[in-house]
Amino acid sequence: MILWIATVNGAELKGKASASWTDWPIVGQATLSWLWFDIYSSQLRTPDGHYEQVPNDVTPHPVALEIRYLRDISSKDLLEETQAQWERLGYDEAQTSAWLTLLAEMMPSVKTGERLVYVSDGRAGQLYYFNQQGQQRLLGNVENKQMNDTFLSIWLSPQAEHPKLRYQLIGMKQ
Questions:
Q1: 11: confidence class by pLDDT, cuts 50, 70, 90
Q2: Per the CB 3.0–4.6 Å rule, which of 84, 106, 119, 174 could disulfide with 167?
Q3: Are 62 and 80 in contact (CB under 8 A)?
Q4: From the CA atom positions of the chain, what is the Rg in Å?
Q5: Among candidate residues 17, 27, 15, 24, the one with its CA nearest the CA of residue 127
Q6: What is the pLDDT of residues 108-149, one digit of tens each?
Q7: Which domains does the chain have, with CATH numbers?
């Protein structure tokens, strides 16, 4: 599981979703490990500290998903894992391959301690990069609701590959 972005056009999210996400309460947090290797730690935030699952919509309200990488991962590996997760979730390959082409132009390689944060208002989203010193850079915007939901489905869908991680992120007991 990784973090990606879609289209870039310089538009800001509607409302205050991107500006105030750091003040939102944490809904849940989880660490993804493979064998004995920790890959990343993650946390989900919402304006009220609760995540509401709605059938067929993983982002019915604003969310911020933060991924702090615990090892170096190349851009190529992030993109390949994104594609694998979308295939596993059954998304249309023609649509997702177009999105992956866009992602390839902006997805950075990440080093241990760096973060990618995806902030969504429920319809659109923005992807941010934070270096090890906490300096922030906007990587791009997702203006398409379907792409917004498809991205967040990697972590928030009931069919996500790692259900324990999902339960921890959305604040539920498994």
A1: very low
A2: 174
A3: no
A4: 15
A5: 17
A6: 999 999 999 999 999 999 999 999 999 999 999 988 899 899
A7: 24-170 (3.50.70.10)
**157 to each of 72, 79, 86, how far by Cα in Å?**
26, 19, 11
Asked whether the beta carbons of 89 and 154 are under 8 A apart, the reply is yes
- Mind giving me the DSSP string for 34-60? ETTEEEEEEEEE-TTS----BTTBS-S
* Phi and psi torsions of 152, nearest 5°: -70, -20
- CB atoms closer than 10 angstroms to residue 163: 12
Tokens of 132: 């090890």
Inter-CA distances, 74 with 77, 131, 149, Å: 5, 15, 24
Amino acid at 111: K
- DSSP, collapsed to helix, strand or coil, labels residue 146 as helix
| Residue 31 token pair | 């660490």
